[in-house]
Each structure stands twice: as structure tokens, then as C-alpha cells.
């Protein structure tokens, strides 16, 4: 689903979700989706729209963006988030890099 349409879908489903944070989250999820095609990352799947809906649910409940991403995206993958040799670790590292890039570009 295109970024803008997915954003509108999530905001319609969870109207209390902060739009700016959700926009950032979908951008990060799209980078995880793109990483599936990267031979260095070797991810077995990519996050679905259900994952972005879960992020919106967490954000609407006041959960911090990083925690929402970890719970809705990283936990879809096998392994541990702190082990870079697992899919969960690779995804967690990618999310951290994306969040750092967003923070440094402010």
C-alpha cells in the first residue's frame, strides 16, 4: 500500500494516533520492507499493514515511537532484538539507525 494511503488508513482506524509520528513510523516500516530485498539482511518476510495498524494503536495509547516499532515490527521476526545474527536483531538495528537519522535531521 502506498505510504500516504497507509497513513490515512491507520489514522482513520485510530484517530487519536499522532499523525506526525505515524508518518515517521510508516517511513521506517517501508525501509524494513525494502530491506527484505537486500541480500545482506536476508529477511524472510516484510511487515504487513497489520503491523502498521498495531503501531498506530500503540501510538494512540501514548506509547513511545521506538517501543511501538519494537512491539509491532521487531517482534514479528525470530530471534532476539539484541542479537544481530537473528532477523529480529537485524530489524531492530535497522529501526535504531532510522530513528537516529530522523533525530539528527531535525
Description:
The chain has 106 residues and is mainly alpha-helical. Helix content is 62%, strand content 0%. The longest helix is centred in the C-terminal third of the chain and has 18 residues. The termini are far apart. The model has no long low-confidence stretch (mean pLDDT 93).
Task: Kindly summarize this structure in a few lines.
The protein is an all-alpha fold. 62% of the residues lie in helices and 0% in strands.
Radius of gyration: 13 Å
What is the helix content? Answer: 55-70%
Helix segment tally: 5
Protein structure class: mainly alpha
Number of strands: 0
Oligomer type: single chain
SSE blueprint:
Layout: H1 3-13, H2 19-35, H3 49-60, H4 65-72, H5 87-104
Helix pairs in contact: 1-2, 1-3, 2-3, 2-5, 3-4
Keywords:
106 residues, mainly alpha, 5 helices
Amino acid at each position: 500500500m502506498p505510504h500516504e494511503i497507509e497513513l490515512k488508513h491507520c489514522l482513520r482506524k485510530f484517530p487519536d494516533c499522532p499523525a506526525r509520528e505515524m508518518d515517521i513510523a510508516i517511513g521506517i516500516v517501508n525501509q524494513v520492507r525494502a530491506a527484505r530485498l537486500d541480500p545482506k539482511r536476508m529477511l524472510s518476510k516484510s511487515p504487513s499493514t497489520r503491523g502498521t495498524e498495531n503501531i498506530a494503536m500503540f501510538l494512540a495509547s501514548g506509547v513511545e515511537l521506538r517501543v511501538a516499532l519494537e512491539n509491532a515490527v521487531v517482534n514479528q521476526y525470530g530471534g532476539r532484538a539484541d542479537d544481530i545474527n537473528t532477523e529480529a536483531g537485524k530489524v531492530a538495528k535497522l529501526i535504531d539507525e532510522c530513528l537516529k537519522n530522523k533525530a539528527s535531521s531535525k
